[in-house]
Amino acid sequence: DRPPPPRPAAGRPTRGRSLQKDLEEVKELLTKATRKRLRDVLTTEKHKLEIEMKNQPPPKLKGDAGEEEKSLLGGYTVKINNYGWDQSDKFIKIYISLNGVQKLPAENVQVNFTERSFDLLVKNLNGKNYTMTFNNLLKPISVEGSSRKVSVPLLCRY
């Protein structure tokens, strides 16, 4: 009564292959989704997967230090719950205080807007990733007219 031997490492899907399969499934679900809210959620997830795949580090040879990979991706992800909100007839501004964000490379601050949602990902700020997602906004927003601005020390989102 021996347990079966473990599968060889070569048979296990890599992170990149897993992300690709997730992306394919999300795209397939998007073609079938008819509800606006569900389409927005799936579009946001599709964008996140595309960004994650794009930022996937190249495969490393055995023996390479994992420390460098850790520094690129940050330690763990923190959900942003503390923010300021300003609203007028034409604009909505969300202010998020993240010390040191202005020193990050532009590609470490990613934002995705859809007509009824937006999500933010700040990568590797002081060893952590930060995320904020708003789904099902009360009114549609202009995706083309939406932007983000990083300033000292606030991250401002419009």
Automatic annotation (TrEMBL):
Locations listed in the record: Cytoplasm; Nucleus
One Gene Ontology MF term: ubiquitin protein ligase binding
UniProt region (Disordered), positions on chain: 1-23
GO biological process: heart development
Database matches in InterPro entries: CacyBP_N, Calcyclin-binding_UBL-bridge, CS_CacyBP, CS_dom, HSP20-like_chaperone, Siah-Interact_N
Pfam family, one: Siah-Interact_N
Task performed by this protein: May be involved in calcium-dependent ubiquitination and subsequent proteasomal degradation of target proteins. Probably serves as a molecular bridge in ubiquitin E3 complexes. Participates in the ubiquitin-mediated degradation of beta-catenin (CTNNB1).
Name recorded for this polypeptide: Calcyclin-binding protein
Native source organism of the sequence: Apteryx owenii (Little spotted kiwi)
